[in-house]
C-alpha cells in the first residue's frame, strides 16, 4: 500500500519512527510534512495528507500531540474516515467496522511502543463490509 503520512511539530518524532515500521511492513510512504520540530499548524498538514490520499494514496497516518486536531481536520472531507486510535482494539474496530482510511494518533498520549502496535494492527486489519458498508455509505464517499 501507498501510505500518506503527516504530522505537526508535536508528532514529528513519532512520525519519523513510524515511517520505519511502515517500510518494514512492506509499504511505501509519502511524507507530506512537517519536516522538523519547528511549530506549525496541524490543519495545513492534515489537508496535505487528505489531498494526497484522495488523489493517489491507499491509507494515511496523521500524528499530532493528542491526535484530536488531526482527526477533526481530516474528517472535514467526505472521502476520509479518520479514526483516532489509542490501542489495538480501537485500531482493529476502526478498520473492521468503519473502513477507516486514516489513522490518527497522539504522540503525547501513546508511548512509541504502543503507537507501533496500534499502527501494525491498523495496517493488517481488513474491512469486513456487510452491514458496515451500508452504514458508512450514509456519511462517506465510497
UniProtKB/TrEMBL annotation:
Molecular function in Gene Ontology: ribose-5-phosphate isomerase activity
Active site: 64 (proton acceptor), 97 (proton donor)
Source superkingdom: Bacteria
UniProt: D-ribulose 5-phosphate binding residues: 8-9, 65-69, 98, 108, 131, 135
Listed name of the protein: Probable ribose 5-phosphate isomerase B
Biological-process GO terms, alphabetical: D-allose catabolic process; pentose-phosphate shunt, non-oxidative branch
Keywords assigned by UniProt, alphabetized: Isomerase
Pfam families: LacAB_rpiB
Similarity remark: Belongs to the LacAB/RpiB family.
